[in-house]
Amino acid sequence: MFSTVLIANRGEIALRIARTCREMGIRTVAVCSTADRDSAVTRFADACVQIGPAPARRSYLNAAAIIEAAHQTGAEAIHPGYGFLSEDPMFADICQGEGIVLVGPGATVLERLGDKARAREVAAQAGLPVLPGTTHPLTSAQEAREVADEIGYPVIVKAVAGGGGRGISLVRDPATLPRAYEAARTAALATFGDPRLYLEQFVSSARHIEVQVLADRHGSVIHLGARDCSAQRRRQKIVEETPPPGLPGAVVDEMCVAAARAAAHADYVGAGTLEFVVDADNRWYFIEANCRLQVEHPVTEMVTGIDLVREQLRIAAGEPLELRQTDVLPRGVAIECRVTAEDADAGFRPTPGLIDEFEPPGGPFIRVDTHGRPGLRISPDYDPLLAKVVAWAPDRPQAIARMDRALAEFRIEGRGVHHTVEFLRRTLAQAEFVAGQHTTGLVERMAAAEARRAG
Amino acid sequence: MSEEFRVTEPLVRSLCAEAIQLLAVAQGPVRRLKLQAGRVSVEIEWPTETSLPAAWPGDGAPTANGKASNRAEPTGISPVRSGVIHAEGGPPPPAEDDGVTLRSPLVGTFYRASEPGTRPFVEVDDVVRPGDQIGIVEAMKLMNPVEAERPGRVRQILVANGAAVEFDQPLIVLSPLDAG
After folding, report:
1. Interface test with B, best of A68, A71, A72, A94 (most B CBs within 10 A)
2. What are phi and psi of A29, to 5 degrees?
3. Strand, helix or coil at A285?
């Protein structure tokens, strides 16, 4: 096992990773920008290196600075968390060249699965159903039109280098396709540095279901069940849960087994997630693979009792999985709500500012992953996720009630600082959510209903 | 995001008027005053001898804000901390006298000479001009020069040759010299 691990991330996830390292007796090195100098992980870690100014491209995306910090502190491994460099094949290559273990599947797999179009091809070869569409990047607007005509509208245009709900545009009819294609190319180039696009059939009334897998370097691959992440706002997840409500157990099992098999086929190593879209007839299709720890991993941990970061570190250190598939016995229901520093009444505008009061909830079967504290300055340079509140209960109604109780207790105050706690409570109270029948249009429908009531 | 300021006569006149105001309310003779419009920035520098008491016994650098010095609470702008007062936000620089600190532009290893065995770029008491190299920070085998931005005399070298440095870590303190 590593004696020193550098955590190349910030905020709640950096602290979360550091805590597991501490439990394993691993010395922790945090890196920080000048904006995060006094953050939760820098106070917790055994050592800290300031690597750059606030902008991510000069700090958390600065591979050279991170590698230097690793060498300076003797870190044998780097845990990249999620986002930032966690799925960057070039960074994975650099780490390997520098003799540093990067926690994750390695450059080859990252390249193959990070290209979202190519990932569809890999998935198809591994026997997973994929939506009609292209498995290679579109070569022209003309080709886009031909493919769209063939598979039928509406279609979704997606960035090859995208992922995480970004770089996606819905095209409802042929007339809007040419402009949407050009706009999507421009946006993809600006956001991801890669203008290439691919096309997929659109599934209405879709549920977003994903499967957590673990794979070691010795050929063992297991799944840890599925999560439902259908509650989204503008394709960003806001509430996640496990097990997926209202989906027949047989369908979930089928998806999980297929996902594990596909991960093995792709030579995956580490913790990974395969995302699927499920239509109104419970037909499921692969959409993308995430080669890193996911934000919502705590719900899986709560029902399985498995520490995913611990498993990641063991796998990265070359140890075999101790768990067999038959050891994975999820129990109960876990729900996570993402509390963000955004103004839900003003278009979810991010509200950077200084937090004066911060009192997260607690009590039975409540977990809060956060870097928040009084005195925290929320920076506009990073995404506004402030805290993840996770509730476990033996069944779903109790879990929802427990989550509502916990959210109601959560105090976050600061001049100019807004947060989404009340919005999340309203979301949980929606009839379709309570019934476990919500799809990815939930938040839009909620907003439309509120607008009608107000108007 | 920075704003574009068109330099107009009214703007220049306004800045001059502000400067005169500030000089009037500032306590003691001001050595240097800088006003800037884009990204804001107000810098006021006082010479050490008349502004702050010498280091108090048992103290670190003088941090006089009226309490330690027994002076009457000053009105207007007083030299709470000689050196620069930035309007940008972010933590204030450590209390120091008029020394100018050169900081590491990146995380890496600090070298005082261009090669092992050669003479260091600077030693204490050397005079440097803007653009003079004072050291190197190496990261991933790339050598990044660190240069003086203003004329000065090397007062203190804070980091040993070959030591690891963080981003923004103080490397060298200069005593500023007037240009020309």
Report:
1. A68
2. -120, 125
3. strand
CA distance A455 to B9: 50
pLDDT tens digits along A23-34: 999 999 999 999
Q: What angle do CA A183, A187, A192 make, to 5 degrees?
A: 150
* 8 Å CB contact of B91 and A37: yes
Q: pLDDT for A339-397, tens place per residue?
A: 999 999 999 999 999 999 999 999 999 999 999 999 999 999 999 999 999 999 999 99
Distances (CA, A) of A315 to A4, A268, A306, A326, A446: 15, 11, 14, 19, 42
Beta carbons within 10 angstroms of residue A215's beta carbon: 25
3-class DSSP assignment, residue A394: coil
Q: Is there a contact between A417 and A341 (Cβ–Cβ < 8 Å)?
A: yes
Residues of B with Cβ-Cβ distance to A34 under 8 angstroms: 90, 167-168
Amino acid at the residue A49: V
User: B95-130 in b/e burial notation, b at 16+ Cβ within 10 A?
Assistant: bbbbbbbbebbbbbbbbbeeeeeeeebbeeeeebee
* ipTM surpassing 0.85: yes
For the record, the structure tokens of B101 come out as: 């600190």
Residue B9 in tokens: 């006569």
One-letter amino acid for residue A387 of the chain: A
Sheet holding A4-7, edge to edge: A47-52, A27-33, A4-7, A77-79, A101-102
- With beta carbons less than 8 A apart as the criterion, state whether A408 and A401 touch: no
